[in-house]
Amino acid sequence: MPLETRLMIGCFVALAAALVLAVTKVLGAWADHHISRHDLIVESRRRRLAYFNAVAERMSDITDEEAADNDSVIIEDEDNDQEDYAKAA
Q1: How far apart are CA 64 and CA 71, in angstroms?
Q2: Predicted structure pTM score
């Protein structure tokens, strides 16, 4: 085999290797970008869910306290107040 043919085959092999390396780098960067984007979306959804659960828990605590405050309210008749004022006078 002549020297020129060997050099041509060597160049083609080098070009093929460079092409494969470039394609794998591009695909790797693309995959890394989408994987990190997916991780950020999942983390964002997890934080949003935790925030909404905290707000719901806080609101349920507030409504429970309001219900407890409303249960302890004593309503007196107005007639009894007037009788007390009459006795005091």
Answers
A1: 10
A2: 0.50
